[in-house]
Design a protein that fits this description.
With about 280 residues, the chain is of the alpha/beta class. The chain has 11 helices and 9 strands. The longest helix has about 35 residues. It starts with a helix and ends with a helix. Bound molecules: ligand C2E and magnesium ion (MG) (3 copies).
Length: about 280
């Protein structure tokens, strides 16, 4: 009967929910040990000058390999770390590690590139955030122009505070970028008040660039950025057609699997070598 089915559905739902909660709790607990047990590493994805395909920077992306659970995606653990506040110490580790690695590459003779680091809004709003950024630069010896911070539109919910922090970062010589641009609830009005350097168009717009309407959207976002004197970057480029459409619309910087996935530091070094060789030839 319907009643019995309903009951069965309920218990099925209950056990499903239970295993989701168990996994979440497990991840929450395991995250506590992840930094000290050195389970995190950063992978790097090149940022490319589209017309020449030359590397002009890289984004650091966090990777977590748990001894029993295996690889856990940022899509799964970052929201949990944000919810529990653990993202603050994890984010500090990421910032310091990315600065150290970038400095090491420079010292090993690679041509200097800017590293982009993702920063969660909770981390961005900590009282000692600017201090942490300063420490990351001082401890690594990295010059500020080689660091960029990627934040999301959600910082606009606290616009006054955010503008102050962005101004301080700019005064320190650090670049800032609005990540996943176009997916949040930012009013275009506020965008012109933000002291930022770059907008990064979200992958969802790039995915649909083949359709006329989406192409018009992307073109409009690019024009907006250009008119506000911002650098415009496209994320998630997977095909030559997408790349051509972007260049045609005046967006000359991008990232995506078409060029490279995010790779481990050793592998990134190898592609940097090829990139440097290309540079010598031009
Ligand atoms: P995001 O910052 O927007 O990073 C872009 C994501 O898209 C990365 O996923 C990247 O691997 C992926 N991606 C890049 N190109 C392509 C492409 O051509 N096709 C497809 N399908 N995907 C592409 P990932 O590494 O899984 O990171 C997901 C999100 O997790 C990031 O989105 C970012 O919001 C967050 N995240 C990653 N690392 C950190 C971190 O260190 N701190 C913070 N706060 N968040 C991070
Ligand atoms: Mg990002
Ligand atoms: Mg993004
Ligand atoms: Mg994205």
């Amino acid at each position: 009967t319907a009643k019995e089915n309903g009951k069965n559905n309920f218990s099925f739902y209950n056990s499903e929910l239970n295993s989701i909660m168990t996994r979440k709790l497990k991840i929450e607990n395991e995250l506590r040990k992840a930094i000290e047990s050195e389970q995190f590493i950063l992978h790097y994805q090149p940022k490319v000058d589209l017309p020449t395909k030359r590397f002009i920077g890289m984004e650091a992306l966090l990777r977590w390999e748990h001894p029993e659970l295996g690889w856990i995606t940022p899509g799964e653990f970052i929201p949990i770390a944000e919810e529990t506040g653990q993202i603050v110490s994890i984010g500090e580790w990421v910032l310091k590690e990315a600065c150290k690695q970038n400095k090491a590459w420079q010292e090993n003779g690679f041509s200097p590139l800017c590293v982009s680091v993702n920063v969660s809004v909770l981390q961005f709003q900590q009282d000692d955030f600017l201090l942490t950024v300063k420490e990351a630069l001082e401890e690594s010896g990295l010059e500020p122009q080689f660091l960029e911070l990627e934040i999301t539109e959600s910082i606009m919910q606290n616009i006054r505070e955010s503008v102050k922090i962005l101004e301080s970062l700019r005064a320190m010589g650090i670049k800032t970028s609005i990540d996943d641009f176009g997916t949040g609830y930012s009013s275009l009005n506020i965008l012109q008040e933000l002291p930022i350097d770059t907008i990064k168009i979200d992958k969802s717009f790039i995915d649909g660039i083949g359709s006329t309407n989406q192409q018009a959207m992307v073109k409009t976002i690019i024009d907006l950025g250009v008119n506000l004197n911002l650098t415009v970057v496209a994320e998630g480029i997977e095909s030559e057609q997408q790349m051509e459409a972007l260049i045609h619309s005046n967006c000359n910087i991008g990232q995506g699997f078409l060029f490279s996935r995010a790779v481990a530091p050793e592998d990134f070094e190898n592609i940097l070598k090829v990139n440097n060789m290309k540079l010598e030839k031009v």
